[in-house]
Amino acid sequence: MFEFSHPWLALLVPLPWLVARFLPALSVSGVALRIPFAERLDRALEQKGSFGNVLPNRQWISWGVWGLLVLALMRPQWLKPPLSRELPARDMMLLVDLSGSMQQQDFQSEGGEKVDRLTAVKEVVGDFLLEREGDRVGLIVFGNAPYLQVPFSTDLELCRQLLEETQVGMAGPRTAFGDAIGLGILQFDQSDAASKTLIALTDGNDSASQVPPVEAARVAKSKGVRIHTIAIGDPATVGEDPLDEITLKEVAETGGGNYYFAGDRASLEKIYQEIDDQETREVEVVTHRPRLDLFMWPLAAAFTLQVLGSLLLLHGDHKALKETRAQVRLKVDVRTGELELEEEA
Question: Fewer CB near the terminus (10 Å): N or C of the chain?
């Protein structure tokens, strides 16, 4: 689509004519050369010279250059098809436990095979990530300590890929759940999203944190961050890594979110779907239409016309002078010093 950015500047087209029509001509006083035969010279040039035919061309060239300059000032533009982009309206941080207990093979894969807990989480959370179009998503993994695997990003495929590359025990065998929540809260400090959500998944209890999980949840609530907790595995597990459902429920309640328990893959999928339904989002769409400026073309045309016109007029004036010199001759009377115009036949 073609349009002008400043179409009102077309009113400048008749400006030179208005100036010449209504403003008085510039008068310059000074010494002038008086020629007694000026009238005969003008008459001879009009009859035999070429200046009379050149002047109209000079006027049309000037008007053409002026019109092209005004056209460039109007800023012609070509509008390309609009481009739309969704602005992230929600920031979501995912916390995934990589402690040693996540290697328990009590879950099933999408194909029905028996797999460890982390493998099942990767499949379910990976699919959940790809449905987060319009959100900024981050990933924190934790064991002995929490680590920021992916800062907030709209590149969902990259986030899924980095989740897929995680392994059980790569962050240590223990569970620093409270510290993981604290690290997640820090990521929201630079966020101005309307909705801030933290989803923490673990199968054990906090055994390595410097900050108690419930205290971290209080800080999150004060900063407007909602916390959902997901417990997976067997709640009857005993030993070094028993599932601490009581703490997970307190964290969710304090953080303004919900507590969920997933004993198998199907329930885990249902939990993430339920969280997605609860976390409503308003997507803000920004539309931008690229504009291609074309003012340089009439500007280049004006410059070219001016140069070519000047060359043609210079050639015409030179030719007219040669013809005039051949047709008109001045005769000087050496005795009296008078000048006399002689016209050749």
Answer: C
| Helix residue ranges, H only, 203-295 | 213-222, 245-254, 265-278
**Do 106 and 253 share a structural domain?**
yes
pLDDT per position as a tens digit, 246-305: 999 999 999 999 999 988 888 988 998 888 777 655 555 656 778 888 888 989 998 998
Q: How far apart are CA 297 and CA 110, in angstroms?
A: 61
Rounded CA-CA distance 123/160 in Å is 9
Q: What is the tens place of the pLDDT at every residue in 27-38?
A: 666 655 666 655
Q: Are residues 122 and 174 in the same domain?
A: yes
pLDDT above 90 coverage of the chain, percent: 31
198 neighbors 227 (Cβ within 8 angstroms):
yes
- 240 secondary structure, DSSP code: S
Examine the domain organization and report whether 192 and 62 are in the same domain: no
Please indicate, yes or no, if residue 178 is contained in any of the structural domains. Answer: yes
- DSSP classification of residue 50: S
Contact 251, 50 (CB under 8 A): no
- Is the entire prediction scored with pTM above 0.90? no
Quickly count: other Cβ atoms within 10 Å of residue 172's Cβ.
Answer: 16
3-state secondary structure (DSSP) of residue 226: strand
Q: Judge if 243 and 101 occupy the same domain.
A: yes
Cα dist from 26 to 19, 55, 82, 289, whole Å? 12, 20, 53, 49
Backbone phi and psi for residue 282, each to the nearest 5 degrees, phi listed first: -110, 115
The closest of 318, 339, 338, 319 to 330, measured between CA atoms, is: 339
- Cα separation, 313 vs 303, in Å, equals 15
307 φ/ψ angles, rounded to the nearest 5 degrees:
-65, -50
Q: What is the count of structural domains for the chain?
A: 2
